[in-house]
Amino acid sequence: MEATATAKFMRVSPRKARLVVDLIRGKKIADARTILSLAKKASAVTVKKVLDSAVANAGQTGVIDVDTLYVKSAYVNCGASQRRFRPAPMGRAHKYKRRTSHITIVVDEA
User: Fold this and answer.
1) pLDDT of 81-94, one tens digit each?
2) What confidence tens digit (pLDDT) does each residue in 45-78 have?
3) Residue ranges per structural domain of the chain
4) 54 in Cβ contact with 5 (< 8 Å)
5) Architecture label for domain 2-109
6) Which helix (DSSP H) or strand (DSSP E) does residue 40 occupy?
7) How many other CB atoms are there within 10 angstroms of residue 85's CB atom?
8) How far is the CA of 33 from the CAs of 28, 45, 63, 98, in angstroms?
9) How far apart are CA 27 and CA 82, in angstroms?
């Protein structure tokens, strides 16, 4: 029995979030929480919240023992990009994108 949690439109680049998510894939929940609390990436806070939400979702069913959970799969997809403009020399404007991401974590019992 698996449980899922998804955070959509998070204001972190998918590439940066994937670096953190790759650290916890396949780990036990206690190990994953330790890794995320010690990670020096800003997106680790967001990923930890999604992980805690997935564990809480698993606990709501009443069938799954929360102590035996592990991260079955974790992935980051691209969200909508906001287009913005930044001032440039000689009165011009340069376009850039503010990227968002969808973070999904699936936990299952071992």
Assistant:
1) 999 999 999 999 99
2) 999 999 999 999 999 987 788 889 999 999 999 9
3) 2-109
4) yes
5) Alpha-Beta Complex (3.90)
6) none
7) 10
8) 9, 10, 22, 28
9) 34
